[in-house]
Amino acid sequence: MKIDNAQLAAFAEAIREGSFDLAARKLNVTPSAISQRVKLLEERIGQVLIQRSTPCQATAAGRPLLRYAEELALLEAEALTALGVLDAEGGAASGVRIPMVINADSLDSWFLDVFDDLAASAAITLDLRVEDQDHSLLLLRKGAVMAGVSASPKAVQGCRVEPLGVMRYLALASPPYVERYFAAGVDAETLNAAPMLMFNKKDGLQQLFLARLIGDAVIKPPTHYLPTTRSFAEAVRRGMTWGMIPEQLAETQLKAGQLIELAPQHCLDVPLFWHRWRIASSALDSLSQLVHGAAGKALRAQTVV
């Protein structure tokens, strides 16, 4: 059995764009054409491939097919780029698209150096998804991304994993905040009363820090949620709350005395790993080299146990 290319493209684009309408615009066809092609593909495969939700998602049966579609698109783009084939408007090829996932803290700190290296060339275009470092592997398992940064050293099936380094997080607050809430010291009682900041509901860094600092004591402080890295750090600097901030983002404020460590003897070291598909791809190889280079300059070395 052979897979129809038009049907496969409709299926993959619906997942990438999140809806049949957006997929239709991308492929310059009608939404009904997308729906019909996906239906025919599902009939041919004999299984439901797309969850008709908002956004559209691949079912368990659709995930291997999505990975196949992404691999095919990657290899085709690399071949056309190598051949110097022009696009429909007569311009240069738009580059090899690589969907990847990364945590917000890395994106706003050390990963910015990767952008500097990519700026000089259009050979690679990134389709970035932002997800917590402890949850990014889910997108790799689904086949929605080809590569990503994760805190897990365990390789997803069909991927290989490589260590990047350690991102250190510090428990920080502004001097007025420390004076207001921790004049009597940093302990279970004062921490329970001091407002705490979390990135989102998935963020476990603050709770992990508390568990290491005070053990099994039950701590339920007032909690704010702020899901952007720069605003997170700024809220802490302005004295709204305390939170765990990567040392790279806090270096200037620490030197200026705008931020203070709550417990200088305690920090959280989060090892980061680069996951990428096991596929022969010069574009993935190039991106991997850039990511390792940027991480090597900014992250702490991992300790071999």
Mind explaining what this structure looks like?
This protein is of the alpha/beta class. The protein has 13 helices and 11 strands. It folds into 2 domains: 94 residues, Arc Repressor Mutant, subunit A (Orthogonal Bundle), CATH 1.10.10.10; 210 residues, D-Maltodextrin-Binding Protein, domain 2, CATH 3.40.190. The strands form 3 sheets. Strands 3, 4, 5, 6, 9, 10 and 11 form a 7-stranded mixed β-sheet that branches. The chain has a two-stranded antiparallel sheet with strand order 1-2. A two-stranded parallel ribbon has the order 7-8. A hairpin with a 5-residue loop joins strand 1 and strand 2. The radius of gyration is 23 Å and the shape is elongated. About 2% of the residues have low confidence.
